[in-house]
Design brief:
- With 171 residues, this protein is of the alpha/beta class.
- It is built from 5 helices and 5 strands, in the order E-H-H-E-H-E-H-E-H-E.
- Strands 3-2-4-1-5 form a 5-stranded mixed sheet, sandwiched between helices.
- Helix 3 links the parallel strand 2 and strand 3.
- Helix 2 runs parallel beside helix 3 and helix 4 packs across helix 5.
- The termini are close together.
Length: 171
């Protein structure tokens, strides 16, 4: 079995400013760096075989801080990117309340398909290993929805630098 430790990146400037980041790179705040360092310390004595991250800077920076303590490189994948918010990207989140989604927002079906592909990627590339993967709030929620065979609203929101562990049966 493969153990997947799924983490959300540390706090970003856009998190603080309530901006819809989507697939923009993002930058950790000093608090976000501190959160990543706390994860590094939390997992310092745990055996982790591989570190995987979204290819977006905010997740990559978080994962690199944690992986450094293990002397490991970070494998990047676009499968872990945040949901593409299309024309909502870069907008102030409170202003979006009640608005219809633009047509270019990534659909939940597409997001869940990407989440399933990520789980398959981890199973195939890291069989019987412990993997720490740093992603984003919505994609992490989609991964858990696929894993638990639940709807997205049934999965609790992950806070910055929160971790959840999934045990993946080999399929």
């Amino acid at each position: 079995m493969t153990k997947l430790i799924l983490a959300r990146h540390g706090e970003t400037v856009d998190n603080v400013n309530q901006m819809m980041q989507g697939q923009t790179q993002g930058m950790l705040t000093s608090e976000g760096v501190r959160q990543a360092e706390m994860l590094r310390n939390r997992f310092a004595d745990e055996h982790i075989d591989a570190f995987v991250s979204s290819d977006l800077k905010r997740s990559l920076d978080t994962c690199a801080i944690i992986a450094r303590a293990h002397g490991k490189e970070v494998v990047q994948t676009p499968l872990l990117r945040e949901r593409d918010w299309g024309d909502f990207t870069g907008r102030y989140i409170p202003d979006l309340k009640g608005l219809a989604f633009p047509e270019n927002v990534e659909s939940l079906d597409a997001l869940k398909h990407r989440a399933a592909d990520f789980l398959t990627f981890v199973r195939n590339r890291f069989p019987n290993q412990t993997v720490l993967a740093v992603g984003h709030g919505i994609i992490n929620k989609a991964i858990q929805a696929v894993y638990y065979q639940k709807t997205m609203p049934e999965i609790p929101r992950m806070t910055n630098a929160e971790c959840r562990t999934l045990v993946l049966d080999e399929k």
